[in-house]
């Protein structure tokens, strides 16, 4: 039986320019939401240096994937999704002290040595930025598309723009943007406060003729359910944030079915 992504219908990268904008939280909620919608979904944590999906999926520190035929990993099934992460191969406090090519190699090995099985979609939680790992993934897997996560703040949008430009250069379609932490609703008085601004994600989507897939509020329950290892789409399916994640997953899955899978891009950088 084969391993790698040849049995996966669509590979979708979740990217951001900047770290800390909520990309891992979006990735796990989209994957679990896709599973709730009836799709066979997987989640690859490509954040080699700071893997967080073990915690977000509630997989205990020290639980390792089963190895078959000596060198093939079976993904860990958690919260309804097939998952693989460097976090499953190391302990929580291990620091990954690797140079870029080693990290890219580790990612490549994780992709190629995992027997994902038949999946409708594999979401890839990318590390922030536009470096080695992003290029490796674009070159080694046929990405059906990328979703860019940003907060509405200028400093995040500048880096989100870089991410969009990078994926445009390697011919990976941008499926849309997700704006995170847009408004905070006070749990005492209900007052809505756009702490990081409110329209940046929409403006970014317009700038690139793309679309805003979701506007996720800054919510204490999103943070608490993440920390507890049960994504909010499962823990509180009627929460406003959970509904927004699920709507986004549904639009993404519909757009993938329409889009033909693009050929692997060739990389050429001119400016
Ligand atoms: P990234 O993957 O971009 O580095 P994370 O998903 O790890 O970001 O999120 C960074 C922190 O912000 C985490 O503590 C996470 O629980 C929290 N967080 C993410 N999205 C939200 C949200 N909408 N509301 C509240 N906290 C959030």
Automatic annotation (TrEMBL):
<dbReference type="InterPro" id="IPR033756">
    <property type="entry name" value="YlxH/NBP35"/>
</dbReference>
<dbReference type="InterPro" id="IPR044304">
    <property type="entry name" value="NUBPL-like"/>
</dbReference>
<comment type="function">
    <text>Binds and transfers iron-sulfur (Fe-S) clusters to target apoproteins. Can hydrolyze ATP.</text>
</comment>
<keyword id="KW-0378">Hydrolase</keyword>
<keyword id="KW-0411">Iron-sulfur</keyword>
<feature type="binding site">
    <location>
        <begin position="17"/>
        <end position="24"/>
    </location>
    <ligand>
        <name>ATP</name>
    </ligand>
</feature>
<comment type="similarity">
    <text>Belongs to the Mrp/NBP35 ATP-binding proteins family.</text>
</comment>
<dbReference type="GO" id="GO:0005524">
    <property type="term" value="F:ATP binding"/>
</dbReference>
<keyword id="KW-0408">Iron</keyword>
<keyword id="KW-0479">Metal-binding</keyword>
<dbReference type="Pfam" id="PF10609">
    <property type="entry name" value="ParA"/>
</dbReference>
<keyword id="KW-0067">ATP-binding</keyword>
<dbReference type="InterPro" id="IPR019591">
    <property type="entry name" value="Mrp/NBP35_ATP-bd"/>
</dbReference>
<dbReference type="InterPro" id="IPR027417">
    <property type="entry name" value="P-loop_NTPase"/>
</dbReference>
<comment type="subunit">
    <text>Homodimer.</text>
</comment>
<protein>
    <recommendedName>
        <fullName>Iron-sulfur cluster carrier protein</fullName>
    </recommendedName>
</protein>
<keyword id="KW-0547">Nucleotide-binding</keyword>
